[in-house]
Design goal:
This protein has 216 residues and is of the alpha/beta class. Helices cover 33% and strands 24% of the residues. It has 2 domains: 101 residues, Formyl transferase, N-terminal domain (Rossmann fold), CATH 3.40.50; 110 residues, Rossmann fold (3-Layer(aba) Sandwich), CATH 3.40.50.170. It binds glycinamide ribonucleotide (GAR). The site of glycinamide ribonucleotide (GAR) has 14 residues, from helix 1, strand 5 and helix 6.
């Protein structure tokens, strides 16, 4: 059983999907604590409702990033966490922290990385006129939104979509792939080779999708 801490900053819908997945008896990970840098994060209530210990480590209380990261690290140790999932955690962790937890931190990002790192991903995807968008779960490296990709999910962009409803559609996919990716990690089925994650026993769909579908 893998003991996981979840780091959040806000709404916590990905946290909720992980809470629900971990509730299944045969799920190979359990959530030992939730840490938020934002005392107002709604995700804290979700954790409390599920009887998961919570902690607020407010970045505003620290002089620099190193001190903030150190406080997070201490809290992780007191939760006895062995693995970390960033779930809408909007602070950048410095390279010392990431190195200490190397290959033991997952992040979810609302784009098909390496496209559209950073914020406002669906606005930028729409501006760029891409036909597909989606989300990525990856292993965290010190550079923002970089690291071996575990799972991605894609959907076709409808020209009628605006950034809000596109984000909502992508979020639904996030809730599917994040628990799946955590499960693969907890089962020890992921090996990292350079910047690639190789998944043991995975099946890869052969059929491509074309969007838009041309009509005569
Ligand atoms: C999610 O869309 C997540 O992918 C994104 O923030 C949202 C959090 O929603 N994360 C990032 O942009 C990190 N780079 P949630 O709080 O409801 O899970």
């Amino acid at each position: 059983m893998l003991d996981v801490a979840i780091l959040i900053s806000g709404h916590g819908s990905n946290l909720q999907s992980l809470i629900e997945a971990c509730a299944a008896e045969d799920f190979p990970a359990r959530i030992v604590g939730v840490i938020s840098n934002n005392p107002e994060a709604y995700g804290l209530e979700r954790a409390r409702a599920a009887n998961i210990p919570t902690s607020v480590v407010n970045h505003r209380d620290f002089d620099d990033r190193e001190a903030f990261d150190e406080a997070i690290d201490q809290q992780l140790r007191s939760f006895k966490a062995k693995f970390i999932c960033l779930a809408g955690f909007m602070r950048i962790l410095d390279s010392r922290f990431v190195t200490r937890w190397r290959d033991r931190i997952l992040n979810i990002h609302p784009s098909l990385l390496p496209a559209f790192k950073g914020l406002h991903t669906q606005e930028r995807a729409l501006e760029a006129g891409v036909r597909f968008t989606g989300c990525t779960v990856h292993i965290v490296r010190p550079e923002m939104d970089e690291g071996p990709i575990i799972l991605q999910a894609a959907l076709a962009v409808d020209p009628e979509d605006d950034a809000d409803n596109l984000s909502a559609k992508v979020l639904k996919l996030e809730h599917v792939i994040y628990p799946e990716a955590l499960k693969l990690m907890a089962q020890g089925r992921v090996s990292i080779s350079g910047n690639r994650a190789v998944i043991d026993g995975a099946r890869y769909p052969e059929q491509g999708i074309i969007s838009p579908v041309p009509t005569s």
